Amino acid sequence: MRCPACDYSLWGIRPPGPCPECGRDFRTTEFIFARGKVRFLCPSCGEAYQGNDYEGLPDPRAFACVTCGERVNVDDMPVELAKGVAEKSAMVASPWLRRQSLGLRKATIKTLLASFFDPSKIVCGVATLRVRDALAFAGVVWGFVCVIGVVFSMIFVMYFSWGFTGSIWPGNFNGLLYLMRPIVIGAMIMVFIVTPLQALIVHGLLKTNGSVRSGFGTTLAALYYAQGPMILNIVPYLGWYVSCVWFCVSGAIVLKTAQDVSGWRASMAMLLSTAVVLVFVFGAFVSWRFNIF
User: Domain extents for the chain?
Assistant: First the structure.
């Protein structure tokens, strides 16, 4: 249990008081704990309680203490590790939400690796997924894809310019702009149109065959966090196909954790929504290419 702003240990400190290191106010319900790994203490008498809901918190969140009779709320209760429990096993903190303490480069690398090999780690330890945090991660991924794509485009244009004119600098940059434009526009479409569209389909599918933990914003944030494998688009030809498959796998695992649904429901939602989106994108491309509408 560490401060999201400065990574200071908050075990035993009574919320919602400020972090002793940076002064940021914190709430117990900002975190997700492993069941049975921590104790929640009554602020009046110190009576210990265990968390029993899906976030590892006491349920109900507000109740009368069985020892002193005082009315307590989870967000007023100090939290301490149970005897013999290590901090790492008590909760898993999302590396992306610790980017202020880890640094952007290190947090990005850790989140990328998690999106490939342990996607649930990205959303563990977070009670509420915020779209803006997830969108920032997706923006970094696609921004890197754009930068690498632009660099490859420049090398390609310079190579042919040297072959035809004897100079690495082309007479005009129309060819370079022609190659760069679809890379940047494609990335923006993926982030701001395709992913929200797929999230809408996924959320609808999950709602039709059962309950979900939270609303559409959580589903959208989950799909943004699952965008890590899309960085493989920097690999020509095969990168797009591999990244799509890996994104489906990563998305299903993140959805399972974020929305507390079964792996089967999450997987089916990802596969069906991806198929629908691919048909939509292909139809839009054909319509634009042949000026159907």
Answer: 1-91, 112-289
Q: How far apart are CA 144 and CA 148, in angstroms?
A: 6
Nearest to 121 by CA among 91, 97, 92, 89: 92
Identify the burial level of 255 via C-beta atoms within 10 angstroms of its C-beta, where 0-12 means exposed, 13-18 middle and 19 or more buried: buried
Candidates 76, 7, 22, 91; CA nearest to 44 is: 76
Burial class (CB in 10 A: 0-12, 13-18, 19+), 222: buried
Please give the Cα distance from 133 to 114 (Å, whole number): 16
Per-residue tokens: 237: 């030809």
Instruction: Give the tens place of pLDDT for each residue, 11-25.
Output: 999 888 788 988 888
Is the pLDDT at 162 greater than 90? The verdict is no
pLDDT per position as a tens digit, 166-199: 555 555 556 666 667 888 888 999 999 999 999 9
Residue 170 confidence (pLDDT)? 54
Contact call for residues 31 and 3 (beta carbons, < 8 A): no
pLDDT band at residue 88 under the 50/70/90 scheme: confident
The two tokens of residue 213 are: 């933990």
**256 torsion bin: left (phi>0), alpha (psi -120 to 50), beta (else):** alpha
* Predicted pLDDT of residue 269: 95
Q: How far apart are CA 268 and CA 211, in angstroms?
A: 15
